[in-house]
Amino acid sequence: MSKTLEAVRDYVVKHPGHRVEQIGPALHLRTKDLARPIAKLLESSHLRREGEKRATKYFPGARAAAAVPETSGGGRPQGKAKAKPGRKKGKKG
After folding, report:
1. Taking the alpha carbons of 61, 63, 68, 74 in that order, is the dihedral positive or negative?
2. What is the CATH number of the domain that holds 28?
3. What are the DSSP E strand ranges found in the chain?
């Protein structure tokens, strides 16, 4: 995810005032896949926003020149998939 964070931050620095609908296609990403990276960049002050809903525009934040925040990886640890409760392995029937 850190590559995505850097790409989004770099794009906004070069193109201040663009909306998600412009950032996504420029980075070859779906706009819904930008929600988490943009939230992290806003939280760490790498970006700032103006406007609401679809009119939201993104601008470089106070820390735009600093390194992007480290990602914790999040989610489930790598390894064997967790079985869903109530399901058994084997044949149907």
Report:
1. negative
2. 1.10.10.10
3. 47-50, 57-60
- Residues 6 or more apart in contact with residue 82 via CB below 8 angstroms: 76
Domain containing 28: what range? 2-60
Query: Does some domain include residue 73?
Result: no
Domain count, the chain: 1
Reported pTM: 0.69
In a domain, 45, yes or no: yes
- Find out whether 58 and 38 touch, Cβ atoms under 8 Å: yes
Predicted confidence (pLDDT) per residue in 13-62, tens digit: 999 999 999 999 999 999 889 999 999 999 999 999 999 998 999 999 88
